[in-house]
């Protein structure tokens, strides 16, 4: 997808119409045999796994099979308890005695460390996976991207809040999944940085920015692919303005043509026409002498 960015920039520069841009970009993906939504498949595939794991961890905790410690965590089924069906934050918000939670600080702090680490890890993962800003994007697209980034800033906090309400085993899974995702992304980016992908596209894509310099065969192939290679309607309209404007010298009150108009009794001259002719500037001396010479020169 990153290798196709220069072609997308060409498309946005050449076509001002949004519909034409979308059709051209769609054709670009088709010719490159790429799917911009292909990376979402693995993300959606994790949802049923996570839901199934959540149900499994909860039921194992209810059966007392996850009461083993892990690293500094006293129990994988904690800090939630069977009283609240192994979800919720009652273990932290209720039953405080003398400024300490119901479990005591010694037992509570180990369970608070993992959510903090998870929030930091999720923030780092998002910063690594975040795509760089597209310089060819329009101002509207940049504003949308900025709004999306603002919303995503709160996602790590939401995940950390969620991890406080489930068994610790699920929090460990989420942390391990993030660690694997960011490691995989760094490895893949490093590989493609050392081995840039080679994408074979039809010749008309490389000639798309040449305009009138495209050969007849390239224009024919582009037209068959649905890509317009001729001038846009706006360019034709702009060019037409210079062809339909005909410069004419204004009529003057003393000219022969105006005398013929006035001497003809069959024509009714509007007052606006008279005012326009009378306001016309007098001819320059050189032009006046040229007209007089033309009038006195006998015709053979």
UniProtKB/TrEMBL annotation:
Localization, UniProt: Membrane
Any one Gene Ontology cellular component term annotated for this protein: membrane
Organism whose genome encodes this protein: Cyclostephanos tholiformis
Listed PANTHER family: ALBINO3-LIKE PROTEIN 1, CHLOROPLASTIC (PTHR12428:SF14), OXA1 (PTHR12428)
Membrane topology annotation: Multi-pass membrane protein
Similarity section: Belongs to the OXA1/ALB3/YidC family.
Pfam families reported in the protein's UniProt record: 60KD_IMP
Protein name: Membrane insertase YidC/Oxa/ALB C-terminal domain-containing protein
Source superkingdom: Eukaryota
Residue ranges occupied by any Membrane insertase YidC/Oxa/ALB C-terminal domain in the UniProt entry: 1-189
Bias (Low complexity): 281-292
Residue span of region Disordered: 281-300
TM spans (from-to): 150-175
Keyword Zinc: no
UniProt keyword annotations, A-Z: Membrane, Transmembrane, Transmembrane helix
Keyword Kinase appears in the UniProt entry: no
């Amino acid at each position: 997808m990153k290798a196709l960015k220069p072609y997308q920039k060409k498309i946005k520069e050449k076509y001002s119409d949004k519909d034409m841009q979308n059709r051209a970009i769609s054709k670009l993906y088709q010719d490159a045999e790429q799917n911009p939504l292909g990376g979402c498949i693995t993300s959606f595939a994790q949802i049923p796994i996570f839901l199934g794991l959540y149900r499994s961890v909860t039921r194992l905790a209810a059966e007392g099979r996850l009461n083993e410690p892990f690293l500094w965590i006293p129990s994988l089924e904690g800090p939630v308890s069977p009283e609240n069906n192994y979800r919720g934050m009652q273990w932290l918000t209720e039953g405080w005695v003398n400024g300490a939670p119901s479990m005591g600080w010694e037992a509570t702090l180990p369970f608070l460390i993992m959510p903090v680490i998870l929030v930091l890890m999720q923030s780092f993962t998002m910063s690594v996976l975040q795509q760089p800003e597209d310089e060819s994007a329009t101002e509207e697209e940049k504003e949308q991207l900025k709004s999306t980034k603002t919303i995503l800033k709160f996602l790590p906090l939401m995940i950390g809040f969620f991890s406080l309400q489930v068994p610790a085993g699920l929090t460990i899974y989420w942390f391990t999944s993030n660690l694997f995702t960011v490691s995989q992304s760094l490895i893949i980016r490093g590989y493609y940085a050392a081995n840039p992908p080679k994408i074979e596209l039809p010749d008309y894509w490389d000639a798309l920015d040449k305009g009138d310099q495209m050969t007849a065969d390239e224009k024919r192939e582009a037209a068959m692919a649905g890509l317009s290679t001729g001038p846009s309607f706006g360019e034709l309209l702009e060019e037409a303005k210079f062809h339909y404007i005909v410069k004419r010298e204004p009529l003057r009150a003393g000219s022969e043509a105006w005398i013929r108009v006035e001497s003809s009794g069959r024509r009714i001259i509007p007052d606006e026409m008279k005012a326009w002719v009378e306001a016309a500037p007098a001819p320059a001396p050189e032009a006046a002498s040229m007209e007089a010479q033309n009038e006195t020169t006998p015709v053979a």
